[in-house]
Design goal:
Its EC number is 7.6.2.9. With about 325 residues, the protein is of the alpha+beta class. It contains nine helices and 18 strands. The strands form four sheets. The chain has a six-stranded mixed beta sheet, sandwiched between helices. Strands 13-17-14-15-16 form a five-stranded antiparallel beta sheet. Strand 9 and strand 10 form a beta hairpin. Helix 2 packs across helix 3. It binds adenosine-5'-triphosphate.
């Protein structure tokens, strides 16, 4: 069982927002749709939700063809960036709402609301109004509300996008733990690669309406399918014919074997426990960026003007430099 998206296309006028999307999102997992702004992530999520219809292709949810089903028949819960909670209802009432309109027995609603508030750590705020909560608490309330009706699938569109960095980080740890407890199939949209790498079981990288790669965070990070995925998932620099990560470059102050590239440190910047060096490498237009620990940099006595020798570390992930961007 899964969410099966087959041959989905979507255009707005002449603009192709999704171009033949085929992907299977496994049941019980937390999947991130990751990619740059305008790439089509939200459009795909809205098509899964039934808020938007595809021009062609099909969407199957847990074995049922949902292509033509309206949103309310798909048994999906949504949470968007800007929390949509009822402002005049208490936290508990907001969570109870979906159950009450389904005419569930009072006692059942009460038990369920208490359980959900416990799950999202809002039990002590049950009688507050949403305006008396912080942004992060309101997003947890929105999640509890979406979970109340026991959806087969939970769809989250940049759920923490409007919050500050620290709260976002807390909420993403919390979402991961919540998912480990409830295991509801969850698809969330993010343009933040760190968020996707930290939280998701599986990541679908979407760019310009197409899927660039699908894989676990480790697969994407260690075996990026192409230059785009590699660059999107973390910092990348150039060393001779390769693109690789700055911390995958080994630096020495003594001449190395043939093939090791030589250069001169042109800038050095300390950021927390790291030192970031820009090295002017002979025969290469752009400087190579090298990241090493402060202790290591100090031991080598590195400063601007020092000549160094660089090579990829053993087992470094690298892709060939493409002089012309691939289409
Ligand atoms: N209703 C619409 N009418 C016209 N164009 C649209 C419509 N909805 C989306 N688009 C366009 O389709 C493209 C994909 O949009 P979408 O919202 O799916 O991207 P996204 O990857 O989620 O980006 P973001 O992270 O910025 O939300 C964008 O270029 C957007 O302008």
């Amino acid at each position: 069982m899964n969410i099966l998206i087959a041959g989905v296309n979507k255009s707005y006028g002449d603009f192709v927002a999704l171009d033949n999307i085929n992907v299977s999102l496994p049941t019980g997992q937390l999947t991130a749709l990751l990619g740059p702004s305008g790439g089509g992530k939200s459009t795909l999520l809205r098509i899964i939700a039934g808020l938007e219809s595809a021009d062609s292709g099909s969407v199957e949810i847990e074995g049922i063809d949902a292509t033509k089903l309206p949103p309310q028949k798909r048994n999906v819960g949504f949470v968007f960036q800007h929390y949509a909670v009822f402002k005049h209802m208490t936290v508990a009432k907001n969570v109870a709402f979906g159950l009450e309109i389904r005419k569930r027995p009072k006692a059942e609603v009460k038990t369920k609301v208490a359980e959900l508030l416990e799950l999202v750590h809002l039990s002590q705020f049950a009688h507050r109004l949403p305006s008396q909560l912080s942004g992060g608490q309101r997003q947890r309330l929105a999640l509890a509300r979406a979970l109340a009706v026991e959806p087969n699938v939970l769809l989250l569109d940049e759920p923490f996008g409007a919050l500050d960095a620290k709260v976002r980080k807390e909420l993403r740890d919390w979402l991961r733990r919540l998912h480990d407890e409830v295991h509801v199939t969850t698809v969330f949209v993010t343009h933040d690669q760190e968020e996707a790498l930290e939280v998701a079981d599986e990541i679908v990288v979407i760019n310009e309406g197409r899927i660039e790669q699908v894989g676990t965070p480790d697969q994407l990070y260690d075996e990026p399918a192409n230059d785009f995925v590699m660059g999107f998932l973390g910092e990348v620099t150039r060393l001779g014919p390769f693109r690789l990560r700055p911390h995958d470059i080994e630096l020495s102050t003594t001449p190395g074997a043939p093939g090791v590239l030589s250069g001169v440190i042109e800038r050095s910047l300390r950021v927390g426990f790291e030192v970031r060096l820009a090295v002017d490498v002979e025969g290469q237009g752009e400087p190579a960026l090298v990241v090493l620990s402060r202790t290591h940099a100090r031991a080598l006595d590195l400063e601007v003007g020092t000549r160094v020798w660089l090579r990829p570390t053993a087992g470094a992930t690298s892709v060939p430099v493409l002089e012309v961007a691939s289409a």
